[in-house]
Amino acid sequence: MGQGTATRSRRAEPGSVSAIARVAVVTLGQTPRTDVVPELCELTGRPMEAVEFGVLDGVGADVLARIAPGPGEPALLTRLRDGSDIVMSIDWTSDRMQEIYSEIAGLDIDLVVLMSSLLGAVPAAAQTTIFCDRVVVRTIETFVDAGLRVGILLSLDSQGDMVVRDRARQPEMVRAAIARPGDHAALAAAIDELDDCDVLILHSVTYCEEERRKAASRSGKPVVMARRLVASAIREALDRLAAPRDSVTSDGALSERLRTLSAREREIMFLVAEGLANKQIAFRLGISFRTVEIHRARMMSKMDFRTMTDLVRTVDSLSEF
Description:
Rossmann fold, 11 strands, alpha/beta, 5-stranded mixed β-sheet, 4-stranded parallel β-sheet
């Protein structure tokens, strides 16, 4: 195990982060993940150096032969350096992840990105950690809260219950179909299976842009890639890390502002950060649209939020992704 080849993004937007941030990208397979990480860096649009850590780095063939899940056990699918796929036990993978996090904790790392979409809770190796499963789940819930039926494309059949039953607040609004990344015939069949859904999500970061285009063309519906969601989360995290210490998210000032909010104003602040419109918030809370407008205006004033970006960054800073 150890650091893989570092990858740097190729562009940065004017006025954004100027220093190169060191980002630990933890993937399930072997590094470097040339099929994912370079594009992820490009999509962030921020200067960053990705230092890759793979769960299977340095793992010998004898161990690889023993990490498959037993019958009926939850599993994870990942890709080896030679491009072949391997299915791993979640229990074994979680134990291995602890070793990687211990290694990262001793390095000069600004941000950790845990790429697995289905692992359970793990200790954060840095103050700022992006858990990609939470990023995807938050997107699913935003669509569901808007009254949309969501179709999720997964890599393995055993992952369906973990995503739909265990992660979705309204499982009746979420359906899953199985298609391993790279299997175009399975992708087409899965899309047809989800024909009654309003929006599709490619749940694994291994799904590529070509597969998104094929899914959109065949379904005629919006298709969201986990890879792009994660890139957006990285960009927002890097922007927050680069923000002045006396910005609106300063711990002391933030605590004082939060104490001025009523319970309803605080509730609305978090719902707005989730991406809900005023009408959706009114429906969720069982209050009038006008009441939401009043509480929202007061909340924005008390928190000194000038833009929606200020609000989202502040709410995200209150907890890990």
